[in-house]
Amino acid sequence: AVFLVVTTAHEATFAQEMGTLPDDVKTLCHRYLDQFGSERTELVYHHRLDGPLGVGSLASPTEIAKGTMDGQPMPYGYGSGIQDVALENGQFLFALCDVFDATHDPEVASLAQRIFRGIRRVATVSPQPGFAPRGPHPDGKSYYRDSSRDQHAALAEALWRFGRCDLATVDDRKFIAGELDEMARRMEANDWKIMVEDNSRIAHVGFGWRQSTAIGAISLLSFLAMVADATGDPHWQGVYQQYSNEKDSYRWKELLAPNKVDSWRPFTLYSNQFAQALLALRRVESDPKRKRQLVELSRRLADRALHSNVLAPEYWRRLDWAGGEEDHL
């Protein structure tokens, strides 16, 4: 997680002494849970729940069941406040695990364990094995059935990262391996596309992960690397190698080449999710050359994001996502 402090030039001084930042970050985490969190689901939401509307700030279970928002068709729940539960909690848990493994702070442990319990609920609330929903609502059962790349990827990353965390028990790791295996089997059966819950059509942001784009390569390789790592299943290890080596390792040589970053499509508000996927891939990949490549790719992406003009359309774009590309190399 990255906290950005924006100040004017004459105010750009450190306001606090070294050593207080960890306490401040923990305070922010607790405020986040207090203001946006549900004690029932142990998850945080996109809208604040501590205001006068309480849980009423979110779409109602009735609307969610209909796939609407404010009476209008919205099967993917945009504006509902539960549309990005897996994404937001998944990234939060990934960061908490990194902090805990570096510090073994008991307060951080408690935060991570709480969010992991929520993530378990996200992973199991649907009756369809391997489906990552948009939700659930604080009622613990209502969710939108048209999901996305970011919900599935962030859920997988959170499960995998907790499984590698010092906090994880043997039972936790067994659960995680099972859930990731189910996600991978569903994706494989659907030719690496994200479908709506009943598999009747491709999801709103469910583009094919085999497409010949950097986002496709990051999504597919990172996901398969995590699944192979968590499950230890030779099948998934073989599939990871298959797509890594396909067409003379085209994904590595072309799509993930650091010197191609300037030709990437403009970023969106949610492009940071691909940085987390790259980090997971780098931690699993055993080849030193590929590890160095991923470090340099991540550095160049961060440099472009930090130093580009956010108002320039050649660097940043509206949320049109990655659809419309061919689904295979």
Q: What features would you describe in this structure?
A:
The model is unreliable at 1-18 (pLDDT under 50). The protein is globular and about 55 Å long. The longest helix has 22 residues, at 234-255. It has helices at residues 21-36, 61-66, 85-103, 106-124, 149-164, 170-189, 214-231, 234-255, 272-284, 288-307; strands spanning 37-38, 43-44, 68-69, 72-73. The protein is built from 10 helices and 4 strands. By secondary structure, it is an all-alpha fold.
What's the layout of helices and strands?
Layout (H helix, E strand, L loop, with lengths): L20 H16 E2 L4 E2 L16 H6 L1 E2 L2 E2 L11 H19 L2 H19 L24 H16 L5 H20 L24 H18 L2 H22 L16 H13 L3 H20 L22
Antiparallel strand pairs: 1-2, 3-4
Helix pairs in contact: 3-4, 3-5, 4-5, 5-6, 5-7, 5-9, 6-7, 7-8, 7-9, 9-10
Tell me briefly what this model is.
51% of the residues lie in helices and 2% in strands.
- Tally the helices: what do you get? 10
Helix/strand order, N-terminal first? HEEHEEHHHHHHHH
Shape: globular
Q: What is the mean predicted local confidence, pLDDT?
A: 92
Q: Measure the end-to-end span.
A: 33 Å
Major sheet size, sense and barrel closure: 2 strands, antiparallel
Indicate the low-confidence ranges by residue numbers: 1-18
The spatial strand order of the largest sheet comes to 1-2
Radius of gyration: 20 Å
What is the total tally of β strands? Answer: 4
Q: How would you classify the helix and strand content by structural class?
A: mainly alpha
Strand content: under 5%
